[in-house]
Design a protein that fits this description.
577 residues; 5-stranded mixed sheet; 4-stranded antiparallel sheet; 19% strand; rod-shaped
Amino acid sequence: MNRISRRLTFQFVAQLVLFIGVMALGALVLIVYIGLQTEKHAAQNPEGLPGLGAFRSSFAVKGGQAVVDAGWASALPERGGWLQIVSPEGRVLASSAVPADVPGQYAPGELFAYWKKKLPFPYALTINRVEKDDKTYVVVYGEKRKAEQALQQALPAFDGRTLSPAGEQALRQQQASLHIYGADGRLLHAFGEEHAVRPGAALGDMLGSAADAGKAEAEEAVHFDPATRQTWIVRTSDGMSAEPGEGLDQIISNGFLAYFIGLAAFILLLSCVYGVRFGRPFRAMLEFIEQLASGNYAQPPRTGKGKSRVSGNRPRKPKGSFRLFREVNESLEGLRLELARSEQLRNRLEQTREEWITGVSHDLKTPLSSISGYAHVLESAPYSWSGEELQTIGRTLREKSDFMSELIEDLSLTYRLKNNALPLDRKPSDVNEVVRRAVVAFMNDPQAASCAITFSPSGCPVTYPIDRKWFTRIVDNMISNAIKHNPAQTAIDIAVKAKPDQGFSVTIRDNGAGMDPRTLDRLFDRYYRGTNTEETTSGSGLGMTIAKQLTLAHGGDIAVRSEPGEGTEIVLRFGGD
C-alpha cells in the first residue's frame, strides 16, 4: 500500500504543479496582453503624441537639468497641448509650448487644486510623478478644455440657422455636441454628436448638468448671446476620460476579469477531470466488492478502458487511472480467486459429506442390523443356546460394536486434528522398529493374506521424535488403504530410508490397480472413498485424511504418484530441509 500512497502523492503534486504552471502562464499572457494593449493605445493617439501615459519618456535629465524630449516638443503644438516638468517644491524646471496664462511656478496645493478643478483653470490637466536619478519630478500635461475649444470654434461658424462644415468638423474632432436654446428655453438647433438632448433649458437644469458633468469628469461649456438672448451649450462625450490613462484602466480591468474567469473555468475543468479520473476506479472496485458480497465470484463483466480484460488465462494490465490502484485490484482479484476456490471446495466437501453420510449410514446400518437381529433372537426365541453358539453371537456383537466404535473414533480424531486439539507425546524412537512392528501386524492378519507384504528397513539406524501410537496409525492407514483398494496378489512394499540431512522417508509402494487423476486429486479429502464400484467401500472414508493430518502434525509431508494399472507410490518425508 505504500506504493499507492507514493503514487497518489506524485499524482497530486504533479496536478498542483500543473495548476501553478497554468496560473503562471495565464499571468504571463495577461502581462503580455496589457503591454500590447498599452502600446496599441499609445500608438492610436489621434494627434501623434508619443504616449501621454509614458511620462517617463517625456523628458530627460542631462547635467542635472531636466530637458523636454524633442519628440514631445514637436508633437505638443499639433495636439494643442503643453508640458511642464515641475519639482516637488512647485518650481518649473522645463517646459514646452506653455501658454502665457499658465503659471511658471506653483504654490503648495495650487497645482493640485487646478488638477482637481477646485480652482478655475482654462486647461484640462494630466499629472504624473516620475522618479529619475533618485529625484522626483512632476510631469504636467495640459490642453485647452475640449468643450471650451469646441464652443470657440462653433461661434463664428454659425450663421443663425446652420453650422458651417468647419464648425461641424470641429465638433466631431472634439467629440462634442452643440445645443442652442431660445429665450424661452426651447431647443432651437442641435449639432454634433448624438448626446442626450434636453427639450428645454432652465437654470436648474444647467446647474444640475454641470454638477453631473463634474462627477463624471465630462465637460460642458455654456455661452449666452445677449443680442439674440440665445443659450449655447457644448458638451463633450468623455471630457477628461479621453485622456490616455482612462481607457487603459478599462483594458486592464477587462484583462484581469478574463484571467479570473479563465482560471475559474480551468479549476472547474480540473475538478471534473479529477472526479472522472478517480471516480471510475473507485466505482469499479465498489461494484466488484458488491459482486463478491453477493456470492458471484466470476470475472467482472465490465471490460471498458482501464478494466482488467482477460486474454486467454492472462489478465491484461490496467490502464489509465486504474494503474494507480493496481495493487488493490490485484488484491481484489486474488480475493475473488480465493473465494471462488473456497466455494468450489465447500461445494465439493458438501457433496462428499453427503456421500459419506450415505456410506456411513449404510456401514452403521449393517452392524446395527446384526446387533438388533441377535438381540431379538436372544430376547424372544424359546431356545437353549449352547456355549459355542453364545460365543459366536458374542464375537459377532463385539466385532460389530468395535467397527462402530472405530468409525466414531475416526470421525472424532479427524476433527481434533483439524482443530489442532490432539496432543502428541513425541519421543526419540527407532523408526525402523516402529514401522517393522506395524508391517508384521499386517503380515499376521488373515485379512491381508491375499497380498504379498514386504518390509525394507533403512541400512542405518533412524531415530526421530515421534508419537509411537499415532505414527503407527499413519503406517496402518497407508497399508490398510493399499490392501483394501487393490486386487488379491498385489505386492506391497514398505521401505524406510534415511536421508543425509537427518531426516528419513517411508515409502509404501504397490503394483496394484493404481488411481485415476480424479481419485488421486481427492485422495486425502475427508469422507472420500474412491470411485471404483468393484471394490468394497466399507470404512469411514477418513483413513487417508487422518494419515495426512498426523503426518503434518509430525512435521512431515506426503507425495503421491499413481497411474491406472501401474500401481501407487506414497512417500512420507520427515525432518531435514
